[in-house]
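Q: I have two molecules that I believe assemble together. Could you output structure tokens for the complex as a whole instead of separate predictions?
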Amino acid sequence: MTGGPLVALEIGTSRVVALVGETREDGALMITGQGECVSAGIRKGEVIDFDHALACARGALQAAEEQGNLVIRKVHLVLSGADIASDVNRATVHVLNDEREIRAAEIASVTEAARRIPLPAEREVLHSVQQQFQIDSNGGIVNPEGMEGAQLSLDMLVIHGRSGALRNAIKVVRSVPMDVEDVAFGGLCSALAVLTRDQKAGGVLAIDLGGGTTDYLVYANQYLALAGSLSVGGDHVTNDLALGLRVPNAQAERLKTQHGSAVIAAEARQQSVALPAEGGFAGRTVRLADVQAIIHARMDETFRMIRTILERRDLLGHLAAGVVLTGGGAQMEGILPLAERVFNLPCAIGRPRGVSGLSTVTNVPSYAAPIGMLKYAMQTGPAAGAGSVLQWFRDILARTARGGGHT
Amino acid sequence: MSERCRMMLVGVGGAGCQSLGRLRRDWPDGPDMLALHTDPAVLAACGLERAVALGPVVTRGLSSGGDLMLGARAAEESEDAVRPLFAGADLVFVVAGLGGGTGGGATPAVCRWARREGAMVLAICTLPFFFEGTQRRQFAEDALQQVREAADAVLVIPNQRLLDRPGESLPVLGAFKRVDDFVAAGIRALWRVLSQTGLINLDFADLRRLVAVSDGVLTLAVSEGRGADRARQALEGLSVHPMMGRGDVLRAARALLVGIAGGPDMTLTELQDLLTEITASARPDVDLHIGTSVASEYAGRLVLTVLATEQLAAPAAAAPATVEHPAVEEAPPAAAPAADAAESARRAARIVQGRLPLESSGRGRFNNVEPTLYDGEDLDVPTFLRRGIRLSTA
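A: Yes, here they are, computed for all two components at once.
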């Protein structure tokens, strides 16, 4: 085991989760600790109340420390929300040496150029992932080194989000106080946790149905083709129920988890659910058909938005391996038939793969993102994939250190 | 209209009396107006020809102090004094701000009296601004449920919608004045549409029909264009109108009443363009009532008045296509008091079931956060509302 245990932290809209993972002898990931705290101060994956969010992060990390019996000094942070989206940026360089052979220098310069995508001032890069090289007009090249040609192009998928939202999450962790070793997009993490090599090769859409956001990621044509986050999640379903049926939020949440369904069952027309009196709420009976109609409308809309996004990028026809659903929302009754209807593709629930340890964590779809974060951290090594957001923090730290500040 | 349909305006509570007072000053030859309030000082100040103080005993001549129960008891006390005033009226507009004690507490009773006297009652209710506080908004929503059960239809004006103009900073007094102006302009436009004879007439029967197919909630928008480009201006004004929710209301409405008023220079092409545009942006099966009138005072202008049914409600029908309009609703109310009572009971019965999710809290727990906009839609508003899905309550 190298480098000791790793800690993934996800500041989610419904829960803040800290997972401790270690690499086993055989190289597989084992979850050895878990800390959790019900979220406050988070909406749609973003910090809206700094102090509440900070208290939750502290609570989750402390619980993980106790259970994993370790002292946590740094975490790998899962980021979501923040209007995360992706664009393909193509860069081209001319091969200038006499043999017209592509060497490390050309690859380095085209990679550098492809990373530099013009973004609006309020957005910044979270990941840049290489898609394919092209030599003159031949595309689909994985490694061009040693090949010959006049022009070398590279397509880079650049994943970016709103700086403010991304930085706030990092600030929360820094204030715990805790180091942020690395950051990664939640949708990418979930995909890493649940997708098989074959699914990625065949073309697949992974959807993480979170509390405040719905993250999606597409592998097509053998590479990462699309990533993004919609600021709509399970919280919206609860809110829709609370408003539509005029019940308190807690009751709406219970209706969702205990009686919810993303498709409207024929027998629901005759059934109703009695809600007990509680607090200032007098108790009510609601019709199951209404509960399901409200949930169906929201989930159907969410899936259709993703479908439209894929259609616009012409990716819908490249998903031989279908759709994989993960995150807490994947436990919703009827979610698979609905997804199958909307996408017209085979759909499956994704559970984390190649993970052992705490079975309450590893056997459900809810923890896909933090588990994927641990896998990502194991693969990339110390801070290899740091995006510019994290760099921004490192720069600040460096400045404070030079100025004799306290670090 | 005065021969065909006797119309009356009633202001209940501070906001209602004030709106009508303003309307009367600008419109001295308008229909009969009546002011009802618990506070005699406000009644005197509004300057309407007829004013009745509600509940002088229970309130001891003071206002209701924001207490809905007191407002309701005050109304109860004054029923004998007020109810006969509605005799002979065919259409009564009850104007009230529902955030106040009298407006919220007495309005349901006033609507019931007018209905029992045989009039069709359209309540025009404003809901408080966000800055007026959660409690006032909650009161208003409770009151609205009751008004909806008491009146034939409610035209809901969430004040907040009138503020939602980007980059604008309006003083508080300006905000209230804007509400008064909106209410006054809306009433005048409606009155004009229903009363003036034109090329194609709209009348009381059309309004009854609109109310019959609605769930009891209506939305009004008035938009105006001037000059050569007036038709397009009026349409654009409609599409960005604060009450039309970026056109969603128009798209979801099951029935529309459209009044087009213009000067003698109004052309057939303009009319045609307007109707084509409106039809295109409405549901294919929409129940459309159109009226056109020409008056010389509108020379060079074109005024579009749209009254739309809004589908926030959840009445009986499980399938969206089934529209209820039994024969009793077509009968003139004065001629068939028994049928009217039966209809009223039926309405009350179906309304108790479906609770009405309201605009002022349409975003629920997302009220105070940045909206999630996608292709022009606010995703924080429940999908079933935006899609116009009716909940089953049979």
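A: One point stands out. DSSP finds twelve helices and 19 strands in chain A.
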